[in-house]
Amino acid sequence: MADVGEVLMSVLSTIRVPKPGDRVHKDECALSFSSPESEGGLYVCMNSFLGFGSQYVDRHHARSGQRAYFHITRTRKAKKEDDNNSGSGHPPKKKPTRLAIGIEGGFDVEQEQYEEDVKVIILPDRQEVTSEDLATMPDVVRERVSLSMAGIMAADSVSHTLQVQQWDGEVRQESRHAADLKQLDNGVKIPPSGWRCEVCDLQENIWMNLTDGKVLCGRRYFDGSGGNNHALLHFQETGYPLAVKLGTITPDGADVYSYDEDDMVLDSKLPEHLSHFGIDMMTMEKTERTMTELEIAVNQRVGEWEVIQESGTTLRPMFGPGLTGMKNLGNSCYLNSVMQVLFTVPDFQSKYVSNIDKIIDEAPSDPTQDFKTQVAKLGYGLLSGEYSKPAPDPGDENGASEPRGDQIGIAPRMFKALVGRGHPEFSTNRQQDAQEFLLHFINMVERNCRSGVNPSEAFRFLVEERIVCQQSQKAKYTQRVDYIVQLPVPMDQATNTEEIHEAERRREEGDSSAPTVRAQIPFTACMAALSEPEILTDFWSSAVQTKTTATKTTRFASFPDHLVIQIKKFTFGLDWVPKKLDVSIDVPDTLDLSALLATGQQPGEELLPEVAPPPLMTPDVEVKGILGSHGNEEDDSLYSPLLSPVLDESTVLQLCEMGFPLEACRKAVYYTGNTGIDAAMNWIMSHMDDPDFSAPLVLPGCSSGAGTTPTESLSEEHLATIVSMGFSRDQATKALRATSNVLDRAVDWIFSHLDDLESMDVSEGGRSAAESEGGRDPPPGPRVRDGPGKYELFAFISHMGTSTMCGHYVCHIKKDQQWVIFNDQKVCASEKPPKDLGYLYFYRRVAE
């Protein structure tokens, strides 16, 4: 064997010293979840700084030719007993006093103590070089290798920079109303204690408006506790923006809330504003918990097993393949829950896990940035069972204690960073909506599966919408693709209305012992609300050439292999403030949707003519000058694509008054066909992240002039994405040209123009149908699977908290007829799965 010094000299040119900006993966393998704590440690390539576990380092060496690796192994130090321990073997934890992570007074981020051993390994013979060995080597070798080793050790690992180390939820901004707040000279003076709501006499959660001194109760929380919303209602009536929570005032400050800014704020003139109503801030004492303390209490409870719906039950930890926990990376429970469920679906298992060796063999030089590789890595980590082992108990050096619920599990840092990259929400460490993440991930799968098997087809189905003009009784049929059924919650159908009203009455009377009563909603009532016809009051009928009333009925045009149902618990109040419905729904284990199968055009039924609404002429436009060669003044069947469509101006105005951009409001009304404020609002909420959200409205079908997109400038990526969904390239081209090359809008457009596409012979700038392969284009529409509409429940995701932007997610999955609860790193057999309190339900087709 060659001398190690000579070997190092021969590879010296490949050894780099990390520079600022280099990504150093020294905590996690690029292809697995091996780490320096794993058996065999972690090998960091001293050229690319990619990390590899012992099972993959030889493969990387063979592919890249790199020979020098920085080897890191860590072993956990035994923790010393604290003199003030509680007798349980664990030192007492400091109680958090600040809504923060990783800073003084915040939630403690436990840092394990390790002993670290590092050296250089030269492949393929695995020759070892320690720091002591370097001292005897030539200066040029010693200097380069020592600098590289020191640089790798000193560099922040990629996982470290992605992880939440410090987060401060108490950083508040100065209210824009504070400096010039108007205060009424109405003679109101507030006593230093004994406050009651002026409307309902509640004595807790009391707020004083800083403009007029009104003393009123705060918001009602999702569980029915809190106040009765009287302070909020007062703001809605008066517009007076700032309120202070009485009982939190001390010489150091107080809780101040801005209803207009919808957030806790700072008021630099608070002493002056309080003294206006006779309150001396310097003499006040705290008598109530601040909003921060209340949130801390909630966050502490969220981490306890009792709150995860199965309180009072000792849950049996489970380990093995398919029973692997996932570490919470700081509000990543939404991602953990969704991915646990997806990898119980056979399509995702076969696409990514069964082919993992092939995927890794074909991975690019930097697999940390490859979608397919990272999804396969996550899927294998969850299903293999390699990481489904009990987490070591710091107080149990001999491993003699019973296994705890916590696992070693996996930390999906690379995966989260990759799927969230560039996204305004999923790239952050804030809590997110699990349903939105599910759709975001499915969209990424669609884009990355342009050829070959596409696992998201398991959820894809077609929806048929039938609109009937009530004046002409003629119908219009459209189809669209969807992945989730959104089930409405008809609160008026609650079976325990009397109990709810009685509890509300007692709370309004100030009875603090009034129980919290959850509304019981029959699942059949939710399904009836989904299937009942919707009344459209401002429908433009091409049959009668005017606005009239129509009914819209929605049915399944196909049934997917796996059905996702979202309970629409999160809604908007009359003031457009998000709120969560606290409901219990008797969701069944089996489901038969056969009665909701679409029937298509009925015998003898007439269809609405395919005629566009007439153009709306603006006062400063001359018809003659615009029509030009497109038509003439006497022929109104031809009109310029530059003209604006008829838009319901009252709906546009309402949306503008809510603060949305004018052009976005115009597009919302246009793309929902003037069907009213609710439909337009839903369009806005689902398109707010579009890059062209505020861009001017571009009419579909424009063949020239402004708003058109030449074929040459169309995005090949967008074309490939639409083609992968089952459409021809000609059809994809037409859709993108009609929507200014915006992918999301093109997909919406193509599904609303399926009838046009069926009769499409020649695309603009494309081949004719006769010239295409085999002389036939594939039929328009996405590739959808179809079958019987009978299903069985196999998983559900539950949410706790006041909104999708806070709280906690867990999921329950049925494994071999046993319900299992996945709560981040805890995986246990479920004794009482709370099927009535779920948010997302996952069904699979039952074979006939």
What does the model show?
- Among the domains are: about 5-80 and about 110-155, Zinc/RING finger domain, C3HC4 (zinc finger) (Herpes Virus-1); about 170-300, Herpes Virus-1 (2-Layer Sandwich); about 650-685, Helicase, Ruva Protein, domain 3; about 730-760, Helicase, Ruva Protein, domain 3, CATH 1.10.8.10.
- Helix 19 (about 660-670) crosses helix 20 (about 675-685) and helix 21 crosses helix 22.
- Strand 9 (about 205-210) and strand 10 form a beta hairpin.
- The longest helix has 16 residues, at about 140-155.
- The chain has 24 helices and 29 strands.
- The chain is of the alpha+beta class and about 850 residues long.
Task: Tell me, rounded to a whole number, the average pLDDT.
Answer: 80
What fraction, in percent, of the residue positions are helical? Answer: 25-40%
Strand content: 15-25%
Low-confidence stretches: 81-92, 98-103, 162-170, 298-309, 614-644, 700-712, 759-780
